[in-house]
């Protein structure tokens, strides 16, 4: 876990990730259209009991992921961009060539395994993926708990541009 795992450290980390993603959206949109980052507690209240959100920000050497469900939030350090980019590119090449991908399994273990073990009851997962990570078809990654199955068989997955109130799908 990050730091001491204390709530203030996690809240601050979540706010930093939110500001990073919001800044990226401001570059793509006009300032008036860009959303304001949501507070961690507000996000938790907006999630249903079977939903979770994972927000990721990557630096060159190290990354951070914050996982949130209705009852708790926790953070993990992740490998950085330099370690993950070759895997992302190799996975994309493998998908295009329609061949199995050891890179997909490695990405699943490095990015998702530490987070999903804590979110084992989530049947709907929202991902706020940093830059290069948004190019990964997460639904096709192997489920860390059952590597022979794709993650999409375990839960619904939606990419979100920022950590905010999730969209509601009709029942």
Distance between the termini: 35 Å
Estimate the strand proportion: 15-25%
Apparent shape: globular
**How many distinct beta strands?**
7
Q: What's the tally of helices?
A: 5
Q: Which value, in Å, is the CA radius of gyration? A: 16 Å
Report the order of strands and helices: HHEEEHHEEEHE
Specify the biggest β-sheet: 5 strands, mixed
Uncertain regions spanning at least 5 consecutive residues: 1-8
Sequence of strands across the biggest β-sheet: 3-2-1-4-7
The amount of helix comes to: 25-40%
The average pLDDT score comes to 80
Structural class assignment: alpha/beta
Structural notes for this entry:
The chain is α/β, with parallel strands linked by helices and 171 residues long. It is built from 5 helices and 7 strands; from the N terminus they run ααβββααβββαβ. It has helices at residues 7-28, 40-46, 81-96, 102-116, 151-154; strands at residues 51-58, 62-69, 73-79, 124-128, 142-143, 146-150, 156-159. The strands form 2 sheets. It has a 5-stranded mixed β-sheet, sandwiched between helices. It has a two-stranded antiparallel ribbon with strand order 5-6. Strand 5 (142-143) and strand 6 (146-150) form a beta hairpin. Helix 3 crosses helix 4. The longest helix has 22 residues, at 7-28. The chain is globular. It starts with 6 loop residues before the first helix and ends in a 12-residue tail after the last strand. The model is unreliable at 1-8 (pLDDT under 50).
């Amino acid at each position: 876990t990050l730091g001491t795992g204390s709530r203030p450290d996690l809240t601050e980390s979540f706010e930093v990730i939110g500001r990073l993603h919001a800044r990226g959206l401001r570059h793509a949109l006009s300032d008036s259209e860009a959303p304001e980052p949501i507070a961690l507690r507000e996000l938790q209240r907006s999630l249903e009991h079977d939903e979770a959100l994972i927000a990721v920000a990557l630096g060159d050497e190290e990354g951070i992921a914050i996982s949130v469900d209705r009852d708790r939030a926790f953070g993990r350090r992740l490998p950085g961009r330099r370690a993950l980019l070759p895997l992302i590119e190799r996975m994309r090449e493998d998908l295009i060539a329609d061949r199995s991908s050891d890179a997909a399994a490695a990405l699943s273990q490095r990015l998702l395994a530490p987070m999903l073990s804590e979110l084992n009851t989530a049947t709907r997962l929202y991902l706020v993926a940093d830059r290069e990570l948004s190019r990964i078809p997460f639904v096709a990654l192997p489920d860390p708990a059952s590597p022979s199955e794709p993650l999409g068989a375990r839960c619904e997955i939606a990419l979100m541009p920022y950590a905010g109130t999730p969209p509601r799908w009709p029942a």
